[in-house]
Amino acid sequence: MDLRQLQQFVTLAETLNFREAAQRLFMSQPPLSVSIKKLEEEIGVTLFNRNKHKVFLTDAGQAALENARKSLFHAGEVARVARSTALGLSGHIRIGFVGSAKYSLLPRLLPKFRSQYPDVTITLEEEKNALIVQAIENNDLDLGIVRVPLAWKSVVKYETVEEDYFVAALPANHPLAKKTQLKLSDLKDESFIQYTRSNIPGLNAITMLLFQEAGFIPKVTQEAVQVETLLCMVESGLGVALVPSIVRRHPSRSIAFRKISALRESNAIGLAIAYHPDFEMATSRRFRELARELSKVKAPRPKSPGAI
């Protein structure tokens, strides 16, 4: 049997009239009669009793009707889900993100996406830049929210959706906290908490370039992978650090954030949506497009992460 036969069976069972059922099915009555007869022969039981004045379901026909309706429903669902997924209206997205995406980007992006695409489920994983990119390369994640610039080459593409810049984070009782703005050279004698090079080569490289331009090599006494960890160390009085300005959205009484003067635009940092062009699904593309739409940053031409 096929779905066409099941649809004919259900329609006839609902109308109990060959002429009316044929009209609903946009066919003539004789082919419908032949089709129902073939279905009964294939199943091996009589589904309808017929006389000159009436058609009615047999017990076997009544028993088959519910399952026939379910089969038609599920077949329709297969087609609907397939079309919906192909259009990016349903499905599942696996997204990796760095911790600083929690400050602004994710709270703005996720509610909007869930509102527009309620049938798309999202799995979120907080991870480091390098592991997110590696997972996207291996198709273990569909998208990533990573901090840029990235200091290694990859097949992964990215689009910047949030621009940022460095600010100085100091213990609140630090003497330099009395200033409203600092030069980077003001911090040359301080103990620095720096980004671990092996895990965040982008942030490590760009901050070291800043120190070089300011004419000094920082005295690094602590290293950390996550921005939140650097902040915890600053809060504990272990040193000062350069951190993305977005962290000021969640202020701490124990930390003073101060703008650094004379930073060049080329030293800008930010967050980007990372994706693999060979693996990208329609649902992932809709997420990336929404991130671009909500961003105040003009969408750049997608490119591969390169050395800074």
What do you see in this structure?
There is one protein chain. β3, α5 and β4 form a beta-alpha-beta unit. The chain is an alpha/beta fold. The protein has three domains: 84 residues, Arc Repressor Mutant, subunit A; 99 residues, D-Maltodextrin-Binding Protein, domain 2, CATH 3.40.190; 102 residues, Periplasmic binding protein-like II (D-Maltodextrin-Binding Protein, domain 2, 3-Layer(aba) Sandwich), CATH 3.40.190.10. The chain is 39% helix and 23% strand. The strands form four sheets. A five-stranded mixed beta sheet has the order 4-3-5-13-6, with helices on both faces. α1 packs across α4 and α5 packs across α9. InterPro entries: LysR_HTH_N, LysR_subst-bd, WH-like_DNA-bd_sf, WH_DNA-bd_sf. Keywords: DNA-binding, Transcription, Transcription regulation. Pfam families: HTH_1, LysR_substrate. Belongs to the LysR transcriptional regulatory family. This is LysR family transcriptional regulator.
Would you spell out the secondary-structure blueprint of this structure?
Elements (H helix, E strand, L loop, with lengths): L2 H13 L2 H7 L4 H15 L4 E3 L4 E3 L1 H28 L4 E7 L7 H12 L3 E7 L2 H9 L5 E6 L8 E8 L1 E6 L9 E2 L8 E5 L5 H14 L4 E6 L2 H9 L5 E4 L10 E6 L8 E7 L6 H13 L14
Parallel strand pairs: 3-4, 3-5, 8-12, 9-10
Antiparallel strand pairs: 1-2, 5-13, 6-13, 7-11, 7-12
Helix pairs in contact: 1-2, 1-4, 5-9
